[in-house]
Amino acid sequence: MNDLCTDIGYKSINHVGEQLCGDHVDVVEQGENSTVVVLADGLGSGVKASILSTLTSKIISTMMAAGLPLEECVDAIASALPVCSERGVAYSTFTIMHLINNETAELIQYDNPHIIMIRDEAVTDYPKTEMNIGGKKIYKSTVKLQENDIFIAMSDGCPHAGIGTAYNFGWKREDIAAFMETFAPVGYTAKTLSTILVDECNKLYMERPGDDTTACVVRVRKREPMNLLFGPPSNRDDCERMMSLFFSKAGKHIICGGTTSSIAAKYLNKPVRASLNFERSDIPPTAEIEGVDLVTEGVITVNKVVEYAKDYLGGNELYEHWSMKRDGASLISRLLFEEATDINFFVGRAVNPAHQNPDLPINFNIKMNLVKELSNCLRRMGKRIKVSYF
Fold this sequence. Notes:
Blueprint: E1 4-13, E2 23-29, E3 35-42, H1 46-65, H2 70-80, E4 92-100, E5 104-110, E6 116-119, E7 122-124, E8 129-133, E9 136-144, E10 150-154, H3 157-160, H4 173-181, H5 190-204, E11 213-222, E12 225-230, H6 239-248, E13 252-256, H7 258-268, E14 273-274, E15 287-288, E16 294-296, H8 299-313, H9 319-322, H10 328-339, E17 342-347, H11 364-380, E18 384-389
Parallel strand pairs: 12-13, 12-17, 13-16, 17-18
Antiparallel strand pairs: 1-11, 2-3, 3-4, 4-5, 5-9, 6-7, 6-10, 8-9, 10-11, 14-15
Helix pairs in contact: 1-2, 8-10, 8-11
């Protein structure tokens, strides 16, 4: 087994005037190291298109994750999709990226723009085999994965961007490929790459999209462990054990909380050097301990990270708020969202006396809920999460 993993991210914008998106992306894990990703584009836009694409992506991803052959998946879609009363057809295009054991990508494409593959920071072609299943012309490819491979799937809203304005015939696939190739060396996450592409399409549409537009990116990378310590243990006698386990783990180490950092500093026999540099007025400053990668305040900082995580999974509109800044919440967000693949939480159950003030909106339950919300968000980002309580 190799030490590769896949980072998956996607973003959509709706057809102007529509509340629902006619594109849908589904990601279904098939065991620990295999995943099925489906991008479906329903006929037209609005409610009908949304139903068609959602059904298509759900059926295909679920059936393929269960190991059923492609022919059965396509037959199931043809039988299940409701027929459009206006056009008399049931129609949804789809792109499937079946990532097997983090070693092989099986690409299956029907009527969507073909997947763009970037390898060694350059756009690379890949072999395609044409198949005919149920009267549908489907292209199938098998690619052995390498570190830093990038696969970009998209709905036809991407190449349609700019028709009649910036471009006579839209933004050609080869031009999209050249545009995305420039970002390959930077090391952006899949979510950021998909956001860059969709935001550029939105600009070409003059922010009035003439079609539902979706980009789904898969980026192959090496596993990167990360460890986060949040709060002192409920039993003081567990401090030594908690610190020993925390610092024995491979990867970077993040400590959140004043009391927690004091315990860690005592364990390491190193001083805590507090910073008086307030990067932002609403986030407490960070500190430094030799041997620790990042030391921050606790509840307020982690609460901001949870806010960023929820947005990251949605429109990713707050990316500019945390991608460049040096406050504690931004630094944690970059480490957890962009660098880490496997995250170990070490959570202390001690009750902080400072949080018992009834005038403060902080209590023990809020602290536990923050850990739960953050770990759930990170799982949805595709991270492996382990939470240990003390």
